[in-house]
Amino acid sequence: MLDSMTLSAAMVTDERHGVLAANPLARALYAPLFGSATTLGSGHANLVRYHFLDPGARDFYGDWNLTADMLVASLRTEAGRHPHDAGTRELVGELTTASAAFRARWNTHNILLHARGTKLFRHPEAGRLSLSYHSLGLPVSVGETRQMCVCTAEPGSADEEKLILLASLAAPRPTDGRPGTGERSGPRAGVAGPTMGR
Predict the structure, then answer these.
(1) Which residues does the annotated region (Disordered) include (predicted)?
(2) Residue 145: what pLDDT?
(3) Cα separation of 46 and 25, whole Å?
(4) Apex CA 8: angle with CA 164 and CA 183, to 5°?
């Protein structure tokens, strides 16, 4: 399903904002996340860990403070729903110890959530982008939900042209003309786990 969204950057995350799946355009858009030491060191991408523990996140997000507030509010909401979840408690403990910015936000007890809005990026290859996003809950079992976030650009805009550029960078690139021998020019697919709908 994700890979069919060729001009939308789509990813699925768990309740702790760990990336479970991402389409090629999302991997290209979030290349700094997937190439971050916070991802490579742990073996999986986590939006909250990257946001607060990688200094480069402040350059990548054009609205770092707003995104930080939203991530912490969402994480606190999930912590309230599942107070005994060991993974959430471990992540919160790690970030509370390592990041004063996270700790200050966590102590405000804000649980305001945003299902749609605008995200601002400063991409190392595409430059500045302003993208609309929609977040959709995907129930997987009783009391357990995944989130699919889809980022899109206004049709005909400069931001759409930049997404098209990123999509071309993420597209399979043939090496010798034979089917099945292409290589992706974008970030490695394996970092975020398997893509969906392939």
Answers:
(1) 170-198
(2) 78
(3) 17
(4) 60
Does residue 28 belong to any structural domain of this protein? yes
Count structural domains, the chain.
1
Give the helix, strand, coil percentages of the chain, each rounded to 5: 40, 25, 35
Confidence (pLDDT) at 141: 75
Answer yes or no: is 197 within a domain.
no
pTM of the model: 0.83
Q: Contact 130/136 with Cβ under 8 angstroms?
A: no
Type of residue at 7 = L
Tokens (6 digits) for 19: 């990336």
> What is the CATH number for 119?
3.30.450.180
pLDDT of 11 > 70? The answer is yes
pLDDT average, residue stretch 93-97 = 97
109 in a domain, yes or no? yes
